[in-house]
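Format notes (please read before filing issues)

Several people have asked whether sequences and structure tokens are stored in separate files. They are not. Every record keeps both together, in the order shown below: the sequence lines, then the token lines. Line labels are part of the format and must not be stripped during preprocessing.
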Amino acid sequence: MAETESKSPFNVWWFGAGAFVILVLIGGVLLGFQLGSSDDGEPAAAETPAEEAAPEQSAPAVEDTPAADDEARECGSLSTDQDYPTEAPPTEWETYASSSMTVPISEEYGPVNRDGNLWGCYAHSPTGAVYAGLGLIASFSIGGEYDAAVDTAQAESAFEDQSAAAGASFPSFSGFRIDEYSDDAARITYYGDQGEHSAGISFSLKWDEQADDWRLDWTRPDGFEENPDPEQFVMWER
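Then the structure lines:
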């Protein structure tokens, strides 16, 4: 099914099959967010801190879980391979905070830093962007880390709309597809399933020179494909 771009705020994303619909809560940013500025046409100033730009929310505590040698590593030590992956690299899956969402971890592609709510330090490469997408979504929507996204009016709106409820159910992401890639931007679609239903969820990222890392780009809406063909995706072994 062709990708559709959502344009209205929702706190949930759906898997549908006939009259039966499974509701999967994922931080309110997976199906969409309110585009543009506020009703009076004046978006919040870019320099406004995240805690002032969005309502306060309590982020779940995240244990310090860096890899054993993370402290000695630099982002520059990650893989510089610029090829599109035809198979998934060796990957471990780590639960983010106290949620049910698991995030892919790669020694070659990141994240190197997992010692707080903002998981970061990803490889500047197509595969690095793949690993960054899910980690940044978890940081943004579950960890309450506004800095996981490029600071824009759309990011502020998405941050206000999202709310990951305790005990929320998350799909199992088992594959990915790189739709677009350049040195400064990427568009990744992830294959997720819940029971007999599946969906493709697309996110855009930008390379932040100041952070020297990937960040979510909410100036482009996320995309949704219902029951996509898994053959279109590179699948992780899970």
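For reference, the curators noted about this record: The two ends are 25 Å apart (CA to CA). Residues 62 and 116 are 6 Å apart (CA to CA).
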